[in-house]
Each structure stands twice: as C-alpha cells, then as structure tokens.
Amino acid sequence: MFFHTGELQYHSKPDAPDPVFAKKVQELIGGQFGEMSVAMQYLFQGWSTRGNEKYRDLLMDTGTQELGHIELLATMVARLLEGAPVYEQEKAASDPIVGAIMGGMNPQHAIVHGLGASPKDSNGVPWNAGYIVASGNLLADFRANVNAESQGRLQVARLYSMTDDRGVKDLFSFLLARDTMHQNQWLAAIKDLEAKEGPIVPSTVPPEWEATQFSHILYTNTETSTASQLPWVSQPAPDGHPITVEKPVTMSEKPVLKPGPKEAHDTLPMDKPE
Amino acid sequence: MFFHTGELQYHSKPDAPDPVFAKKVQELIGGQFGEMSVAMQYLFQGWSTRGNEKYRDLLMDTGTQELGHIELLATMVARLLEGAPVYEQEKAASDPIVGAIMGGMNPQHAIVHGLGASPKDSNGVPWNAGYIVASGNLLADFRANVNAESQGRLQVARLYSMTDDRGVKDLFSFLLARDTMHQNQWLAAIKDLEAKEGPIVPSTVPPEWEATQFSHILYTNTETSTASQLPWVSQPAPDGHPITVEKPVTMSEKPVLKPGPKEAHDTLPMDKPE
Amino acid sequence: MFFHTGELQYHSKPDAPDPVFAKKVQELIGGQFGEMSVAMQYLFQGWSTRGNEKYRDLLMDTGTQELGHIELLATMVARLLEGAPVYEQEKAASDPIVGAIMGGMNPQHAIVHGLGASPKDSNGVPWNAGYIVASGNLLADFRANVNAESQGRLQVARLYSMTDDRGVKDLFSFLLARDTMHQNQWLAAIKDLEAKEGPIVPSTVPPEWEATQFSHILYTNTETSTASQLPWVSQPAPDGHPITVEKPVTMSEKPVLKPGPKEAHDTLPMDKPE
Amino acid sequence: MFFHTGELQYHSKPDAPDPVFAKKVQELIGGQFGEMSVAMQYLFQGWSTRGNEKYRDLLMDTGTQELGHIELLATMVARLLEGAPVYEQEKAASDPIVGAIMGGMNPQHAIVHGLGASPKDSNGVPWNAGYIVASGNLLADFRANVNAESQGRLQVARLYSMTDDRGVKDLFSFLLARDTMHQNQWLAAIKDLEAKEGPIVPSTVPPEWEATQFSHILYTNTETSTASQLPWVSQPAPDGHPITVEKPVTMSEKPVLKPGPKEAHDTLPMDKPE
Amino acid sequence: MFFHTGELQYHSKPDAPDPVFAKKVQELIGGQFGEMSVAMQYLFQGWSTRGNEKYRDLLMDTGTQELGHIELLATMVARLLEGAPVYEQEKAASDPIVGAIMGGMNPQHAIVHGLGASPKDSNGVPWNAGYIVASGNLLADFRANVNAESQGRLQVARLYSMTDDRGVKDLFSFLLARDTMHQNQWLAAIKDLEAKEGPIVPSTVPPEWEATQFSHILYTNTETSTASQLPWVSQPAPDGHPITVEKPVTMSEKPVLKPGPKEAHDTLPMDKPE
Amino acid sequence: MFFHTGELQYHSKPDAPDPVFAKKVQELIGGQFGEMSVAMQYLFQGWSTRGNEKYRDLLMDTGTQELGHIELLATMVARLLEGAPVYEQEKAASDPIVGAIMGGMNPQHAIVHGLGASPKDSNGVPWNAGYIVASGNLLADFRANVNAESQGRLQVARLYSMTDDRGVKDLFSFLLARDTMHQNQWLAAIKDLEAKEGPIVPSTVPPEWEATQFSHILYTNTETSTASQLPWVSQPAPDGHPITVEKPVTMSEKPVLKPGPKEAHDTLPMDKPE
Fold first, then answer.
1. Chain F: partners with 3+ C-beta pairs within 8 Å
2. Can you point out the beta strands (E) in chain B?
C-alpha cells in the first residue's frame, strides 16, 4: 500500500522559466527510460516476485522512490513553463527570439496541459507499457534494471550541459546520484544471483534441450569484420567455455511452402508444390 | 551492405501443423524481446558506433545473424499454419476440438496474412521501435543487449515445454544455444568496458555535477521492508563505496505553483498564489 | 513524496487458480480505464494544479490510493495464475478442458511474465499515456475523472458476474465501493466549481470570441431523427438559454485549394486554380 | 447511412499562410480531444445504443456534425500551408525568420502530406482509437462526452489567443459556440438520466455486491493534506450519504506468492514458500 | 458537410448470435484495411486535393460511402453479440462449448463495450491513423487506394467461408461487390493519370536529380535467386527502358564515424578517429 | 540467411553538419514509407510466399537491398549530427541562429541517441509494424509495394529541394533511381499477375458470393459532386463491365438493437425493444 506526503523529496525549482528546456525534460518523465518507466518496471517486478521476499521488498522500495522522482520532474516542468510568453506566439514571425521559443517548445504544454507536465517524451510521444520489463526471472530483470539506470543517468548527464540554470542543475545532481546508487544496487544483486545460478539466464534449462555445439561460436564476416580481434574473444567465455570464431554458413535447404487452401485466396501457385 | 541466400541457417520444419502454437511463436518474432528487436537493436547500435570499430563490427555481425533468426521463425510459423482447418471455424460451436483451435489461434493468421507470419507479438500487437535501445554509449547498450538475450532465452525455454513437436524443439535448441553465446559475448564485452571505465555509466560525469552524498544510500521502508537484509548491502558497492541504509525523508517544502496566465484558461485560483 | 508498506490495503486472494479469468482482470489494471489510468491521471493533474491547493491535495490523496489498487489487482492476477497447467498446453488439442484454458488465457502470462501481471489490457495491448487527461482546468478534468470512475465501476460490475470465486468477488466488492466514493467526490467537486464558474468550460472565454448565434442550436436530421423529442430539448439549457432545433445547412462555399508549388511534387492540376 | 455535400458548414479561410500555426491546429483534428475523437466517439456510441432510440439519434446527429468539423479544420490547415516557403528551408541557418518557420512547422506537412492536413496531433502522433469511449452505458458515456467537449473547447480557447488571423478566429468562434451547445446537451442528458437512475454508475449493482462500509470514506493524508477542508466534504455526498474522513490503513497482510513451476524458469526461490 | 439518415444502406442482420465471429468481424472495422481506414484515407485525400476537383469529389463521395460501411459492420457486430451467454463464463471450465466461446470471443466486447462494436481489429488493437495515406499526389495515393480495396476484399473473402450464417453472408456479398467497384474505379483513375504523367511517381523529378545509371538494374543474388527468370525481366520496363540484371556490389568504403563530443557521454573511443 | 559486409552500397557523406536536416531525414528511415517499412514488408512477404518461388526470390532480393538503404540513411543522419553545437542550446534564447537549430532538431538525437540515427519518423514517432503489408496474395501485395515505392520516391523528391548539401543530394540521387527501378519491377509484376488472374483481387471469389448488381455502380452526390464527369466513368471498367452512376439510397430499415442482459449494466431501456 502507498502513502504520499505533500513535501518533495528534493528541491525542484528553476532559476527562470524556460519552456524550450521544459520540452527536453519531458524525456526524463515519459521517455523510454524516464522515471515512469523505472517506477512501473520495479513495481510490476515486485508484485510478481515469487519466493524471494527480500528482493521483492527492494523492488517495492525503489519503485516507490521513482514515483517521487516523477513528482520532482513534473514540478520542474510546471515551473519551467511559468511566466514565459507561450501564448503570444503570433509575434514569432517577426521576433526571432520568440520564434525560437515557439519552435522549440512542445505545443501541447500550452494547448493541452495548460502549462503542466505531460506523461510523454521529449517529442510528445505518449509513454507506453511496452517500455517495461517484468519477467518473473530476477536475474534477467535486474539486467533490465541496470540498463534502465544506465540509460537514465546518461540522459541526465547529456541534459546537464544543455542548461545554465542552477536550480535545474541542482535537481539533476540529485538524480545523477540516485542513478549511481541504483546502478550499484542492481549490479550487486546481479553478482549475488550469478554466484548462485551462473551467468546464463535461465540457469534451469536442461543441457539436453540445447544444441550446445552452437553455444560458443562467434559468427563473424571473416572478410571485413574486425570483431574477432576483440581481446576477450581469445579468452574463456563468462560461462567458462572457450569461444570459437566461424564464418556463418547455411545448414538447411531453401524452404518451399505449400500453396494455401482455396479459402485463403492466396495467389494461385505458378510453381509445383513441394 | 547486406546479402541474402535462399538456404536457411538451420532447420525449421515442424512435425505437424499447430495453428495454436503458431500464435505463441509470434512472441519470438515480434514481441518486445523477439528477433525483430535484437536485429534492429544491434544494427542501429552498430550504425551509431563512434570510435570503436571492432565493437561496431561485432554489432553488425550479430544483428545480421538475428535477421536470419526472424527468417527461421517466420518459416516455422508459416509451416505450423499449413494443413489445419483454420477456415472451417463455423464448426467450432459444436466441435470442441475445432473450438479449441479457433479460440487459441490468432485470427489474423487466417484473415490478414493468408497463413503467413506476422510482425506482431503473441497477442497480435504490432512490433514497434520503442522496444529498442541505441544510445551511443556502448557500456549502457551492452547492458541492454545482455538483458534482451536473457529475456529472449527465457521465453524460448518457457515455450520449449509447451509443445511436443520435435521439429519445433530442434529449432528451439538452436535458438537456446545462440542466446547462450550472445549472453556470453555481451557479458564479456561489458567486463572489458567496465575494466576501462568503471561500473557506473556514464563514466565521464565530473564529480562536481553529482550530489555524491546521495550516491550510496539504500532508501528502504525500515518498518516493513526486509531489503536491507540482502547480503550485499553490508559490503562495498560495485564502485567501491560503502552503502548506507536510510529511511527516506522529504528534503524540500510542499510545492505551490503560480496560477496560470488568463490565456491558459485554467481553473480560477481559489487560493493565494505563492 | 511517496511511501510504501508491505501490507495490502485489502484482501486479494482467490479461492482457486483461473488463468482465463486472470486475462480478463488485466482490463482493470492496464485497460483504458484501469487503475494505471486513474492513478496516473490524478497524479499528473495534482502535479499541475495551480492556485487550488485543496484540490491538489485531493488529487494526490486519491491518486496514491489508486496505486494501491494496481497492487491489489496485480496480486490477484499473480495468484489466479498459480497452480494451473499453463505450461502443458500441448495436451490441448486432445483435451477440450485444457484447450479452453489455452484458448482463453493470455499467452504472455506464461511466456513473457512467468505467471505475473502485465501492464496491459485484457487483449494484451500495452497501457499508454494517451488514455489520461491533465489539462490544468479542474472543472474539465473532474469531468474526465467522474467519467473514468463511471467506466471503471461499470467494468468491475460486468466482471463480477463472470466469476464464482468468492475471493475475487470480495476484492471486487471493495473496488465497487471505492468507485462509488470516487464518483461521489468528483461529482461534489464539479458541483462546487460549477457554482463558481457556471457549467460551460472554460468559463473565461470572452463573449466576443464566440459566435453565440450557434451556441444553442440542436442540429438534427429532421426527417429521420427523433432526437428533438428528448424531454430536455424544450427546456432551458444548463447555461440558462433556450435550445432551438434546426436542420443543419451549409453556410459556406465549396472549398478549392490552390495547386501546390512544384517542390511539393503533387499531382499536376487538371483544373484551373481558384 | 451518410451523405456529403461539397459546401462547407462554415467559413474556413485564413487571411494569410502560417505553417507554424498549421502544426498547432492539428491538435484540434487528431489530438486526444480533436474532432476525430468526438466524431468517432459519438458514432460508435450511437451504433451500440440499446433500447434508447432518441439518444441513439442524438448521438448520430452530433457525430455527423463532428465529421463536418474535421472537414473545416482540414481545410484550414491546407490553406495555412499554402504560399509559405516551406520547401526552402536550407536558408534557415542564415535567416532566423525562415529558421523560426522551419523549427516550428511539422516536417510531415511538407514531406509526407504535400501541404495537406494529417490525422495526427500537434506533435505528429497519429490519432488512435484508444482515445474514444463507447461502453453501452449512456450515463457513463455522456460523462465522457461532456469531458471531451470541455477539453475541446478549452483547447480552442487557448489557441484563439495564439493567432492574430481573423479568418482563423472566425472559424474558432464557430467551434467555441458548437462546443458550448454540445456541453449543454450532454449536461442536460446527464441530468435526465441521473433523475432516473441516480448519480452512481452503473445504477444496477445490487447492494450486496458492494462493501458499502467503504463507499463514503475520503481517504486522506491527515498530516499534510488539506483535502478534507473542501467545503463539500462536510455535506452529504451526491448520492445522499454522509462522507467520513479517514487516514488510509492497511487491512490485509503482506502478500507472499508461491514459487512458480519449474517450466516458468523463474528465479529459484531463496525464501520458503507460504 | 455531412448528413446522416437513420436507415442503413444495406441489410445487416445475422441469423443467430455468434460472439466468436463478432471478434473476427472487427478486422473489417478497425483493422489495418478495415472500413475506418478507407473512410479516413479517402476523406483526408479529398480534403488535401489541389487542382483536381473531380477527383476531390470522387474521394469525398467514396469516403462517405465507407462511413456507411463502418455503420453496417458495427451493427452486425452488435447483433452477433446479442443473446449469447457471454457473462456466464465461469461455466467454461466444465462446459467445453461455453469454453470455446469464452476462448474465442473478445473480452472487451463484454467488459468494455457492453455488447457493442469496438474501433479495434480482430486482436483488440486500436485503430490508428498510421494506417492511412494522404500524400497530395493522386497517382501515388490511388495506388494506396487500390491496395486498400484489394486487401479489404481479400479479407472479406476469407471470412466468407468461416461462417454459415446467411445474414452475415448477405452483408458480405454487398461488401465484396462494392470492393469490386472500388478496385475498378481506382484502377481506371490510375490508368487516366498514368496516361498523362507516365508510370513513375512523381513524374516531376528533373532527370539531373536522378542517378539514372541505377534506375533499371535488378539486383539479385545470382547464386541462389531465381528472380531473374521472371518473364518480364527480359522485356522493357513499364517506363520503356530495358532492365539489366546484376549481382549487388558495394560502391563505397566502410564508414567510420567521428567520436562524439564529451557532452555526448558516449563510450570513449578505443580506435583512432577518421 | 543474411550476410553483411562493412562497405556501403553507395556514398553517404554530407558536405557539412546539419542537425535540423537530420531530423527530416528520419522520415526516410522510420516513417510510414521509410526504408524500415519496405525492408520488413518485402521480407515478410517473401517468407510467406506459397507456390511462387521466383517471386519469393524477388522479394527476398529486394528486401535485402532495402536493409542496405536503412544503413545508408542511418550513416547519413549520424554524419549530419557530427560537429554541430547541439549540446550548447542554453545559448539559444539569445542567439537566434542557435535557436533555429535548437527548435528544428530532434531533441532525442542529442539526449537519447548520442548523435546517432533513430528508428523513428521525422516527428520522433517510433516505427511500428502496423505500417507493413503481407497478405499471402501477391497481386494485392504488389499493389502495396508499388504504393510504398511511390510514396517513398515522392518523399525523397520533396526533401531534395530542402537542402543544398551536395553529399546529401548525391545519396538522394541514388535513392530516386532505386525507387524508379522498384516501381518498374512491381508494375511489371502486377501486369504479369493481372494477365493471369484479372484485375479484381482476389480472383478466386465465386460469382455467387457477390451481389454483382452493386459491383459497377459509382455512387455519387448527384447535386454537388462532379465525379461522374471523369472521363473513364463513361468507359468500360478495368474488369470489362460498364459503370453506372447512381445517387446513393438506403436499402434497409433503421436498425434497433435489443436491450442488453442485466449483467451488461447498460443504460436501462427507455424505449420498447424490437
């Protein structure tokens, strides 16, 4: 169960309005790796965790924090939109400064949201649940999580140098720090699970299910690709087996499908069926 | 530049038609972690790689292999749809066996695709590019890649026990093996890059950008959460710093936004502005 | 800022597994009017509220409750998926009971989520932020809210008679009650705001902006439509003006667009431009 | 059945081209609450109406009018795109006025549509049917309708002050008026249905289905939220019952899910199952 | 401007309820090539037509007819859903006939739409405007139109043999006929435009823009592909030029991108930049 | 099976960076008719072809070429993004030139992709598989293909005059040429199939399925529409039958649906059921 208190977890107040930057900050709210994604990803993983209560709790704790990060960024966007001439855009054709604002801001901030944040990315594309991962396998999902925190921290770092506003940078310094912690925690959890299960997910596949003769071949275009020169190729793979390098070849014939039944109304066959 | 040859990389021929299983196999083609996702993810990462040509080549080699995996699965789906009574579904109300087929198959296989595969998932949702990741930062992206291969192998493993068809299982044994290799290669590449850059992405954030006092705190509900009992919490974090455990608290005031300008036509304020 | 505790707000335990019903319950989680929608709708409205702090607080209080409702339903779905033979579907062709389960369940519950809930609707379509409304105008948004709670309660009521499971019905009895309260609260808030602003949103449009001669005409097909017989048509409109009934007519000429410039490469014009 | 005549319902001719404003007008065509939404919403509601023929007719009459409104706006967009230098954008880097146009216009107007309107919103996101509501319950749906007309009129009002073009303003004055009428008609219809059924949708839920002890509690964070000070909280709810105010509490235990079967290949359980 | 009359253009009444077939009929309403697509495609093309008023009128006439086809199919779906035991699905586990209905029907028909049609496809995916084409070039768009009518008629033909219901077949016989006419009319219009402009769209590209040495080469895998044996390869192309057959080769070097600036926080380059 | 070589099929190097044009080029990669669409469309058509091996090979050959075209454009976008001041956008408010760049570029190129291409269109909307067509009927699908190549070539032609960069124009000259070839090949293939099957798809519909009395009527608004004056209306249709012109009329009664069962919780009927 969830609770909310009116105060914010951290400061979220820009020095000055900047509707153009508000558009960019949307990526951190409703983008593929925005805070909506990590919040929902951790919560759905937590709700589905079976037989690992401490990790369930970690997921719920962290997902709840991320809800608060959406709040911080939504507040920042609302304040970046305050006090700028966003409804006087008819002047833009003659005033290039206003024109730059007009061109660079998200029109929905003015038309749809009345100067509030939107659950969309920096191009105005709505967030969707196809972004998130909750598989029931914690090692797989923690790899998704460390990726999400890596992409998220990368995006904050890029935005950091795109503004001079000290209030914005103060909030970003907090988000950078929290993303450091979250990368740390998922990396530590991965190490913990890999120690128990080994590095290949899922660890529970019986060996007779797998065509293991293909499990350690690096297929590479031996004529133009330099991939086989990577240093780790000549070392044992993370699961302990040596890697071999091969040029990919076909191992099966050219497939020929049978003509469909007449009810399919496919093109009539010109060729003889198989 | 790409080339194609008519032969398949591996066998892809079921023992018998099974339109219901064909619907499920679609997850491996057009689902969030299907072969369309890994193919496009690796290719777009390769096309954007700057200053690391060997990794660019590895990405292009691997992405090209994945295109061939789409081909294997599309061929399997087309053959699972051959020869079953999918256009005689009016009999379903009285014949429960036909009814089960009818209920379990994807109607678009019959109506839209004429017994061919679809670029959609097991529920018929079209694949979209919001599934893929290409950030320009290889360590971040290789984490996305090892996640994708983990989720993908997990899904193949689950489907393996949902069929008795030896031809399907033969193809799955190949896919399980290749996903083992791909997990191995991305894990090895991650180890290589982490050795150079450290574990926190991006490695290039200047320390003065980050509020480092928050970089190693595990925020947890100290009353009901057991997360702090995880073994790694009492050890140094992957980046070498000790982790501290804290109950989350608010560090800023309750935010109050200013009323919008009259052109926003927001609700008139009942309260005094800030 | 948000907090989470491990205990649930209400009971969420079915008497028996039912993977087919689990698919249907997804509508209440990730459908257009599922709990993800109301949670995110209220939170984004709250974060954007300007000059009406009590309503901001109401929105945050209610949105937080809805997060707990997602939790209740995600837990219910996970438990409905426990203990049923969902990975033995190859038997379905010969066993119609298993076939019915196979046909009726969501394949992603087995393949993608490992028996956990999904942030998607009852057909497996991912939730997206295009479902939610946050306009900055509270009267407009409260109308969206009472609609959302009406649609949501309607869907729970329909599902109620589609199961015999007492545990499921117990949870539904709680959701029906909470939706009653939420309809009540948004209706009361609407009445409050309409008393101040009048019924037409936004109340702040200057009269000279509006072609008021068209503001109270019911356009109807006077030959076949019976709409004008509705009792309220002969009474004053909610804003106090009388309604008139008219057959719609054209008031402007047939438009003719100018041919595009040559750089548009549109079809060459056969007709004379305007 | 539908008929079309070449003449327009109202004037739709701007004084001058303005490709930047054309982008913004798209919100009224293909946005969440654009004319495509209300047209399709009313028509699908009408086609599904059971046992209320006058309301069916009202829905069909109104939906048909909205089709004509798409036409008015599509014509306006096409004319706003006429005669501006949209294909000479290479000059933008040196000419800030052209640069402002370039930055602010929708590139698809030039590249994809050849200076015609698009069925998309002001950010270029395609309209989708997830925006519309047709539930079979008229009271629920009329609440959706009055919301749609409120959001729509709000957006027109905001756009009104973002242009000086008298031709555009003339069309907007007509749309403002029609949205006034449509808010009036749905409000009157809601009043009519509430008089018969009461305010809580659906009215047909038997009392024994509902945990009525929770039907009139306002859950609020009693420490920081001011929601309970709203004037209507101390008055009877719209359905006549008194409202009580409570701090939310948990009423059920911490859920523990059982480990999945081995075929799920979930993480192996570290904890004891329930 | 549009008008509507209550009567239907054609009969739309099934002999008996069939909720499973109702799900399939949705493909013809809200699928990629359903009636929503052709209606919106023709209307948007019409509204954007510049300098070809007769074709504008043809598009508006035909688009208006398609609106009536949505109506016919929505009515059919609503009637296929009448009188079947769709809300008694708890019996499905023991009664395989009800189980088949349960598995095969669209759950949203019962839960979301109250036995009405939905603006979605046969898998429940919402219609979206990314399906439609309106380019401003009539020859291009008429090719889209003849494709849409071909795909649409193909789908009706496939569905025709999937039911025994005479009422459904009567409606389908009308749709087959109208799709015949619409294929005829777009084919005739294409022939008309090709006679004026030639077969290659757009006809207005100056020859010096095009690398014409590549305009008539069929690139084919000369080792395994039989494509060059197609009869028309040895004949002049539709634009009059002879076709040559070549094995594709690379004509440019391996690209090497420059490392990004430090603000991009991309991976540090291991290789020397170009 | 697919192979890749590091060299490019053609040159792809701009003279100078231009992040604003990079945004526009995205339409050719991830737009509705971008190279991702034609690549995936041809490959899925090829994988589903039944009984026409030469056409299967043609589809695979051409689809493979299109993969190389994505590569050319992704390389072009990455190079257009090199060396421009995209991370110094805080200067935009005072420097209109930088402001124009800021307003006109895609923010995700800087924030999400680190100066690489994106699998999205020119507005940042992700590519999705709802754009592509693979029906199993080759004549239908070749009509889709000639449309795709027509729309694609049209878009390249429009972009051609929107830049002065000779490197970009060189790549476009190659794409224009290849689109000429592809239009030629699909037109030739259509002619080949029409000669065998006739012009109406599918050719296999038995005449008794079709209400042929409606197969050659042009329905037109005889009062305002000029469509019947098109020259081909008075000539035989492409399938050889004469066309007649009629004003559309209703041929069936006004439909009245039965009230829903009580479990539907629809609005209670005011009217008498049918």
1. A, B, C, D, E
2. 2-4, 217-219, 244-246
